[in-house]
Amino acid sequence: MSEILDIAAVVERLLKVDNILILCHKNPDGDTIGSAGALFWALKALGKNVMVLCSDEIPARYNYMNIAVFDDSYSPEYIVAVDVAGMQLFGDVTVSWAENCHLCIDHHPSNSRYADAMLLDGNAAATAEVMYDLLVAMGVQITPIIANCLYTGIATDTGCFKFANVTPRTHTTTAKLMEAGAEYVMLNELLFESKSRRRLAIERIALESLEYHFDDTCALVVLTKEQIAETGADGTDLEGITSMPRTIEGVKVGITMRQQPTGSYKVSVRTSTGVNACAICARLGGGGHHRASGCEIIGGLQNAKAALLTEVERELKNPTPIEEQE
Amino acid sequence: MSEILDIAAVVERLLKVDNILILCHKNPDGDTIGSAGALFWALKALGKNVMVLCSDEIPARYNYMNIAVFDDSYSPEYIVAVDVAGMQLFGDVTVSWAENCHLCIDHHPSNSRYADAMLLDGNAAATAEVMYDLLVAMGVQITPIIANCLYTGIATDTGCFKFANVTPRTHTTTAKLMEAGAEYVMLNELLFESKSRRRLAIERIALESLEYHFDDTCALVVLTKEQIAETGADGTDLEGITSMPRTIEGVKVGITMRQQPTGSYKVSVRTSTGVNACAICARLGGGGHHRASGCEIIGGLQNAKAALLTEVERELKNPTPIEEQE
């Protein structure tokens, strides 16, 4: 179990060390990369020797952060993980470093407390929000590049200020980042107004397969393994599709069935407030959150669909109470 | 020409009058309705007799504002227009009232100053931002319903904090509205996460017609009058489609051609930074802003498309300088 530190204690520890390695989670998103980038530039400004490491390549869209990535000649004395909630999220390249992680800075209440010490703020919408407070407490000037990194973390983790995790603090921190020079017009265009051709190709196929059930309260999309292969859609493209059926007016349960290379169907269930997605998936051997859950169904399409729709209908008729979780 | 007032002068005038009519612009959006709703509830709290009037029906999605709409038995002594930049934007029902408009509250720098007096803040992202400052100066408590109205105005006019008009003040005002009880989770879902079946049907057709030109830097969508009729897509649905082609990775010019009932093509051109959409459309008899312009082309599809692509190619090869406007 980690020692829980407050911001002042974290500042003290970081100021004492010189060679620092920052670790991101695998399949990196804007928050883990943005928080790492901001900490990287802040520690550099304090004269430290810093590098960043991630098990997966940092996507090219984040090149503007201009982060120095770890090379083998570097031997760090202090290891900091940012936005990594558990050991299983490090990936092959970073996991051995993570075993000796001195500090974790995070906003996930579910953090497994694998690091020696941690700065955890479960009320923050993004780790970048925690990082902003930390850098201010360190006396670091929030330069435009640091502001860009932190804006990226906050904006991506909140769906550009759209998700339920946004708080008044999210907006006041963002105002300060904009005043510090965050290039939010460029960043919003880059992060939210740009879709790959692959993504549009898979959207088209999803829309062609769209069908409605139970008085149009359930919308269902099926993607075959051939269609996925034909469009070249990757994990990110496919994840983006899963939110679509639920956003249709009047739809309470949105379902995406993605055929896997083995032939089985990976099912994503998204529900509107009050409908228990987890209850639907749990009866099919899956699980998740009450508005976003998943399961895998083996068998032909018609059988898989029938099994799924039976559980959806059951849940719509006899709702399983939703227990609020953290 | 209007007398230009500051906030204190506007407060003084509003406190002096009792029977107030608030006018919105036609084809009402979240900012004109939300600003009207906030002013309505604020004046009610001060014991005034207030009603709201719009030439078009207020869309049902804004029912949560619970605004009392004008009836004929009402005879107002003071008329306030909100978010209406010029006389031509009132519409048939409100235009006769607008001719005697005492006050206009707006954020459009292009406002034609038709009202006797005005409160204009061209740096505000939305009229709702100006309205927030006004209501605070009036000493009105920002209740949850007022916060919902103002949040709606700000969020819709900024594309949920995504557009270039957002400033630090936009975020700090939003933080205050959330603290005052704005139901942002419900509002974001209602305003940004909900699409009609008609909209998805026309998106599908748009994606099916998508074609690329000039090394994939130009993406073009064509919608025939039969397809538009078949899906039942309305103006809002079709407007939403026009931004799609430009958001594709690598695309600098996104074009949507919508066949009109007369057979001609209404063309929307959207460009990325540095490409002059207005120059393309101006050569075809249209115009607009430098990143969003339009024109109408008469003739068969192949001829219309050829004429358009010729101008796109010309602009990509020999860019017309963009003069920054207000």
In terms of structural class, how would the helical and strand content of chain A be classed?
alpha/beta
CATH superfamily of the largest domain in chain A: inorganic pyrophosphatase (n-terminal core)
Mean pLDDT of chain A: 93
Number of distinct beta strands of chain A: 12
Q: Report the C-alpha radius of gyration of chain A, rounded.
A: 22 Å
How is the quaternary structure best described?
Answer: homodimer
Approximately how much helix is present in the residues of chain A? 25-40%
Q: Can you tell me the overall shape of chain A?
A: elongated
Which sheet architecture does the biggest sheet of chain A show? Answer: 6 strands, parallel
CATH names the topology of the largest domain in chain A as inorganic pyrophosphatase (n-terminal core)
Q: Name the helix and strand elements of chain A from N-terminus to C-terminus, one letter apiece.
A: EHEHEEHEEHHHHHEEHHEEHEEH
CATH architecture of the largest domain in chain A: Alpha-Beta Complex
Unreliable runs of chain A: none
How large a portion of the residues of chain A is in β-strands, by DSSP E? 15-25%
Q: CATH class of the largest domain in chain A, anyone?
A: Alpha Beta
